[in-house]
Structure formats: C-alpha cells, structure tokens
Amino acid sequence: MNNCPNCLASNPFKKVYRDGLVFVKCEFCNTIFEDTSTRKTRESRELSGSIRNEVQNKAPTETDFLSFGMFTVMKKIAIVVALALVVAVGTFYIYTNIIDSRYEKEEFLYGFPVPKDVEIKSKGKIGSVSSYIITWDRISGKRIPIDYKLIIMKNGWKIKKEGDSELDGIAYHAVKYKKGDVFVSMVIRDPDSLTFTGVSVN
Fold first, then answer.
1. Of 20, 99, 138, 148, which shows the fewest CB atoms inside 10 Å?
2. How far apart are CA 128 and CA 109, in angstroms?
3. Which residue stretches of 101-181 are H helix?
C-alpha cells in the first residue's frame, strides 16, 4: 500500500508499534492501518514454530529406539526357536518312522513291538501267558538299542520296573512294561538272547 486510502497522499506512512502489533500511520491525516505485511510474516513464523514443535514432540526418543531394538531381537529369537522346534519335531518324526519299519507288533505278545530280523528260538502260550524267545545280534551287553526303546515308548508301553539280577549264576537285565491291562517282561541275557513274557490281567 503506497497511497493513503483516506487522503490519497503518496508514501505518507510511518510504522507504529502497539501491544506487540505493527501499524502504519498516515502523517498527513493521522489515519492508522494494520501493517498486513508484518501480520503475514508473524503468522508464517507462528506456523513454522508450531510445525517445529509438533515434529519435536513426535521425534523418537532413545527409549523408543531401545524398545524397537528389543522387540526386533525378541522377534528374531522367537523365529529361531520356532524353526529349531520344527526341525527337532520333523527330525524325530522322520527318524521314528524310519526305525519303525525295523519292528513289528507281535499279536502273540498283545501288540508289543519286536525286531523283524531276528531268529525265533521258541514261542508258546499257556492261558493268558505268552512266551517269546529270540536271538538278536544288536543287543550290546545287557542293553537294547536306543531306537528300540523309542519304538516301545512310541507304541504306548511304559516302564514299570527295571534292574539287573542273577538266576542260577547267570546275570540278566529285566525290564517290565505295561500298557492298559497287559504286562510284558523283557529279559536280556548274555550274549544276545531276548526273552519276552506277556501277561494279560483280563
């Protein structure tokens, strides 16, 4: 604004400051107007300050970074644990299914699993008592292979009693299993003999 709108004088204005505001005063007719150019500048500064404060308030703090970092670490750990669990379960499943093919459920012993590739020495039954004697070259001392133990457990048989003993000067290792109302005793004798005795209480 170069001319006074009241008296039409050319460039008669002088800046006047009141209550933090800026006005212009015509020196000829004393008409006062608000300085719109300074108002726009002030509004622009206020807007810039408001935006700056908002950005500062939203700026991530050190705690935010630590929380995010901890969440990322925990997420990675959870993924690793889940993968390890899947691999372990898968390996166990594959392993047990492979070794499962080495054994079969013997109906004569009420479904107790026995090795397939063995030499059967005797097999008999009196009432509810079944006797089954085999020769197996995988017996080590007085212990059976770990995969055989896993198959027995997988088929639901639980150990009720286990220990070493001696009869007529011959040492042996005996394990008594139970499933439902059936008991199966497995006696391991040197060097490679296995004797099974199955009894149903029904």
1. 20
2. 10
3. 146-154
The long-range contacts involving 157-161, CB below 8 angstroms and separated by at least 24 positions, are 157/112, 157/113, 157/184
Beta bridge partner(s), residue 165: 172
Under 8 Å CB-to-CB from 108, ≥6 apart: which residues? 123, 125, 130, 132, 198
Decide: 134 and 121 in contact? Cβ < 8 Å. Answer: yes
Q: Which two tokens stand for residue 134?
A: 């085999």
Angle formed at CA 37 by CA 33 and CA 43, multiple of 5 degrees: 110
Look at residues 11, 35, 10, 6 and name the one whose alpha carbon lies nearest to residue 23: 35
Q: Which H or E run includes 34? A: strand 32-34
Each residue's pLDDT expressed in tens, for the chain with a length of 202 residues: 566 666 666 666 677 666 666 667 777 676 665 666 655 555 555 555 565 666 555 555 556 656 777 778 888 899 999 999 999 888 877 776 777 788 999 988 999 999 998 888 999 888 889 999 998 888 876 788 888 998 999 899 999 999 888 877 778 889 999 999 999 999 988 667 888 999 988 7
Q: Own/partner pairs for 63-67, CB < 8 Å, 24+ apart?
A: none
pLDDT for residue 114: 93
Helices (H), 35-189: 36-58, 62-100, 146-154
78 phi and psi, to 5 degrees?
-60, -40
